[in-house]
Design a protein that fits this description.
There is one protein chain. The relative contact order is 0.06. The protein is mainly alpha-helical. The protein contains 38 helices and seven strands. The strands form two sheets. It has a five-stranded parallel sheet. It has a two-stranded antiparallel sheet with strand order 6-7.
Length: about 750
């Protein structure tokens, strides 16, 4: 759950001297049947005050999340929603990279779980929604999430913008109740009553009419103008369309110049903080009575709300005015020192992300950079790589390029969305760490570089260079590193060798080490990631050993509390092992279970492998792979060459099973072409065997045998291919004579 002052972001404001707008309370009551209520009006229209006072008057509890400009990415939005003080249960999921390919599914699951923990009648308020920097994306996802609103729950969106097209269907079926500026505009009666609340003296008819005419229903204009004499009222306007300039003028004349110098001093300095506690106010202003002054500002309703704590928050427009005033009143050096002092307060109060934002705004790069490094791993763990990249992009490029750890995290931040770009950063990082003799950084950079090839799953030729570098790394101080760092390096080298250099003499050594990590390691995500590759390796090299690995993992991986990613990877692992062993019925059951979890969770990482193995299992038992091939086709990405190779391999097999030798040969050749483009050596001999089978089915026995012999000489006689090749017919064999089809089924990896 959220802790400290940051809880103010997730709590409803406490308002001072709020007028109960009964007319609008009744309108809100009347539309409570609609799951989604949307309040849209200009800044200062009283939207937040209206909702907060209505909920208080009705005695309803609500979950409240205020959207800030710092919520610059979708993962951050979900992160804060997951911190709401809702009914206890397992933590709501973080938007980690495996969910990015299916954001709508993740969103639907997230909101379904969130709503299930809100006791009806309940309300979720999303305030200041227009402040999100990725508003368009969030609007689309919010529309998906709101489709899950159950009976007895309302979502209230407060925004300066009307509902976008993504919510058109909600309007059409009556699930969205809009309340706009025309309804929120003050009536004459409301203007007079609110003015009376602030002036504390009744207004005469003339002054009340003048005030109402000038503010044109705008609450902010009314608050600013209330209490002025009639001549001043007639000289001003409070219309929202003029608010940009008008608000600045009004803040200066009707608030700032009306308070004493100590209060001015307090306001400008505390405006650096997103939310202000009395202790923070005293620290930044150095005024002994800071807490009293801050409470007075709130009591006078100077565009300030109070949260539990107490913690105070200025209206965004008022805060912007105060910060501009501060910048104009201080010398650069004084201002920089004040920014750093405010940032230090935020750090001490465990608000490090807010401190980083403030330091970056002040261009205090040398102070911000260490804090970014401190936060980097945590942000990535929360799926907030985009937030990390945004911070690093705000630093001078020269600073990032010269600081290898900043460059390392720059690459890590882009790994899930742009692995090729991430690799470029990590290559420079590796070179810098190597030159500086920073061995731990060198190993981490190397391991992450290898991961980038797996994330991209395009061309693995570049792994040759890093395999060469690994030889030197493995011969040095590897055992002195943290165990987790060693494990990542070991697994990375094993996978690199397995796919790119399967003939390497050290492969079995690194396979055995990786096997121990899979069975006995402490990082469940690493174990889940590498387990399928370990089983794949041992299934072809030593099937009995693969079974040992599976037995050791089964009791751990089959626990009901496993995250979906682990559950899916385990299904893929077991499915591959069973398919390769001919246990196709059991394999199909496990693979279908994995596909079901994958579809429900929106995790696509293993879907192609699951579908390919399910297709092979179907073909082995004499069925068709057509349905699986169609599903695979929709998942294929242009640059993921090995996925294309597998797809065309299965297409060739399907064509062979239907006695279409020419089509099968064309598909097999395409499979080999994509395999070659991928730079994956491990499967080369199997694809050559498939082409030979197609040639044999077409009647070209001599060409088929020549291709087999060439393949064996070119690739080398690999353990695991012997059983397949030993079954190949020799010249003069009577096997299957006169039938235009292969003499045995295409190899499944045995």
């Amino acid at each position: 759950m959220a802790t400290g002052i940051s809880k103010a972001k997730l709590s409803a404001p406490r308002l001072s001297r709020t007028y109960a707008r009964i007319r609008l309370f009744e309108q809100l009551d009347a539309v409570r049947h609609a799951p989604l209520i949307w309040l849209s009006a200009p800044a200062g229209a009283g939207k937040t005050s209206l909702v907060a006072s209505w909920l208080k008057d009705r005695g309803d509890s609500a979950q409240w999340c205020r959207i800030d400009e710092g919520d610059a990415d979708v993962a951050t939005f979900f992160y804060y929603l997951g911190q709401l003080d809702i009914e206890a249960g397992s933590p709501l999921p973080l938007l980690t990279p495996e969910y990015l390919a299916s954001l709508p599914i993740f969103t639907r699951n997230f909101f379904r779980e969130l709503f299930s923990r809100i006791k009806p009648p309940g309300v979720l308020v999303l305030d200041n929604f227009q402040d999100a920097e990725v508003a368009e994306t969030l609007y689309e996802l919010l529309a998906v999430g709101c489709s899950e609103i159950p009976a007895g729950i309302n979502v209230i969106v407060i925004s300066r913008e009307d509902p976008p097209p993504a919510f058109a269907r909600f309007r059409a079926n009556g699930a969205l109740a809009p309340i706009g500026w025309d309804q929120l505009r003050l009536t004459m009666q409301e203007s007079r009553a609110i003015a009376h609340l602030y002036v504390e003296l009744p207004l005469g008819d003339t002054d009340a009419q003048a005030l109402h005419a000038k503010i044109d229903g705008w609450v902010a204009g009314l608050v600013l103008l209330a209490g002025q004499d009639a001549p001043s009222l007639s000289a001003k306007t409070g219309r929202p369309e003029l608010q940009s300039q008008a608000m600045s003028d009004y803040f200066a004349t009707e608030i700032f110049q009306q308070v004493d110098q100590d209060t001015q001093h307090l306001l400008t300095r505390t405006a650096l903080l997103p939310r202000v506690s009395p202790a923070a106010a005293q620290t930044l202003s150095r005024l002994d009575d800071a807490a009293t002054l801050l409470e007075a500002v709130y009591r006078r309703n100077f565009f300030t709300v109070q949260h539990p704590g107490p913690v105070y928050e200025y209206h965004p427009l008022f805060r912007a005015f105060l910060r501009q005033r501060l910048i104009q009143s201080l010398l650069v050096e004084e201002l920089t020192n004040l920014y750093r002092q405010a940032a230090q307060w935020l750090v001490d109060d465990d608000q490090v992300p807010e401190a980083v934002d403030l330091l970056l705004e002040a261009e205090a790069w040398e102070v911000a950079a260490p804090l970014i490094l401190q936060q980097a791993q945590g942000l990535l763990g929360q799926g907030r790589g985009a937030a990390l990249v945004r911070w690093l992009d705000m630093l001078p490029d020269a600073l990032v390029q010269e600081a290898p750890w900043l460059l390392f995290w720059r690459g890590m931040g882009e790994m899930a969305t742009n692995p090729a770009a991430a690799r470029r950063h990590l290559e420079r990082t590796y070179v810098r760490f190597k030159a500086d003799g920073e061995f731990n950084g060198q190993i981490l950079s190397w391991s992450t570089l290898v991961d980038s090839f797996l994330f991209e799953w395009s061309c693995l030729v570049g792994l040759d260079h890093w395999i060469s570098e690994a030889r030197e790394l493995a011969a040095t101080r590897l055992d002195a590193l943290p165990q987790n760092t060693q494990d990542h390096f070991t697994c990375g080298l094993f996978i690199a060798l397995m796919f790119r250099q399967p003939q390497h003499p050290d492969l079995s050594q690194w396979a055995n080490r990786t096997q121990q990590i899979v069975v006995h390691g402490h990082d469940p995500r690493l174990r889940a990631k590498v387990a399928p590759f370990v089983v794949m390796y041992y299934t072809t090299a030593n099937r009995k050993q693969a079974g040992v690995v599976l037995d050791a993992l089964r009791s751990i991986m089959n626990r009901p509390d496993q995250p979906p990613m682990v559950e899916i990877a385990w299904a893929a692992t077991e499915g591959f092992f069973q398919t390769a062993g001919g246990d196709v019925c059991e394999a199909a059951e496990r693979l279908h279970a994995g596909l079901s979890v994958s579809a429900a969770a929106g995790i696509r990482t293993w879907e192609t492998l699951l579908l390919s193995q399910a297709a092979i299992a179907s073909l082995v038992r004499g069925g068709s792979a057509e349905d699986y091939l169609q599903q695979m086709r929709h998942l294929l990405v242009d640059e993921r060459y090995l996925d294309w190779s597998v797809y065309h391999y299965i297409m060739a097999w399907q064509a062979l099973s239907e006695n279409h030798a020419e089509i099968a040969l064309a598909q097999a050749q395409l499979s080999e072409s994509y395999r070659s483009m991928s730079g994956t050596v491990r499967f080369e001999i199997y694809l050559q065997v498939m082409q030979a089978q197609c040639l044999f089915a077409r009647g070209d026995q001599a060409q088929a045998l020549a291709l087999i012999e060439t393949s064996v000489l070119h690739v080398g006689w690999q353990k695991g291919t012997r059983s397949a090749l030993s079954a190949w017919p020799r010249p003069g064999s009577n096997t299957n004579r006169g039938r235009n089809r292969p003499v045995w089924r295409p190899c499944t990896g045995r």
